[in-house]
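A student in our group prepared the protein record below, which I am reviewing. This is what I was given:
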Amino acid sequence: MLPSTDSNRIEIFISYSHKDEPLLERLLAHLSGLQRAGVITVWHGRDISAGEDWRKEIDKYLATAQVVLLLVSADFIASDYCYGVEFERAMARYDREEARVISILLGPCDWENTPLKRLQVLPRGAAPITEWPNREKAFASVTKDIRQVVERLRHTDVGDRPGGPKGIGEVDSVPGVKYTLALVLTIAMIALVAGFIGYYKPQSPDAGVPQASPSATPPSTAVAKPSASVSPHALKIAITEFPPYNPVGGPDSIGHIAGTVEGSRREEYCIVIFSYTNLWYLQPSTAESKTAIDPNGSWRAEIKTGPKYAVLLVPRNYQPPNKTSTNPTRLDGVVLFMEIEGKNVLRIRQNRNAVTSATENVNTNP
């Protein structure tokens, strides 16, 4: 069973094949310093007491851990339960941003052709631990990176942590209230759109972009309007130069990111980039933080590095916040976004309800 923990201790769940228990033992030995310091608690299948329902115990701890470590090997991938159940449930929580999931590569295997390639891989450089000349150095390197991840989580507000508890009175603690509030907000948005519908009319029969009516002045705050297609200008975004993966980040860690934008009227848009450490920070952190798109569709920016990045396509007059605890892909007014970790694109999505006319003012500052 897990020992009792305070709110600043990070819970770690380890998924592994029983054939890799000797390597699990060495990892646990290296993590023991973090446990003794009260930084983490660790749970794995061997902690199940005799007579307990092992499936229920695994489900319980896998559902609440803030960090999930996958001990990846050929036996792990071959295991129906490790790969087919624990890994899939961990990835579901990862996609909902409820947990950090990290692959620890124990031995050579074909992990790069599986969904495991989406995850951060340790040791750095993806060299399997069993192929290191000194395995203890490999485990020490892995432990150092895990320490950086958990220390960053410990300095994040509890309610904002992956899998962290909600604050007292937050609506997520009562599912019925959550859905009721969502319904009320939806109705309010429909009412706002209906109230301003008279301000707009089509530019031409085939334009498909709302324009200001000459008989009225459009409001200064953007109002999201439904779109019949995913993107009115067939916009596409791609990354051609990935920034370095840096689990710590910091003011002195500089890198570059570059990409392209395709689609008609792309000159109406610009790129906004956020780098994540303990919060999402706008990049570059200069007076002009928005990145222009060149006439040929390319763009490039110097940024401060981190473990994750968000690349947003927005109208040129978009005003992004300097920092946010909310994933910036959820900000209002974003037309297209990509979320990146290392050299892996985690998500790319177009916002069907985004404001896409550069003639409107978009401001997301709190």
The mean pLDDT is 74. The longest strand covers residues 254-262. Residues 175-196 form the longest helix (22 residues). The domain at 10-160 is CATH 3.40.50.10140 (Rossmann fold).
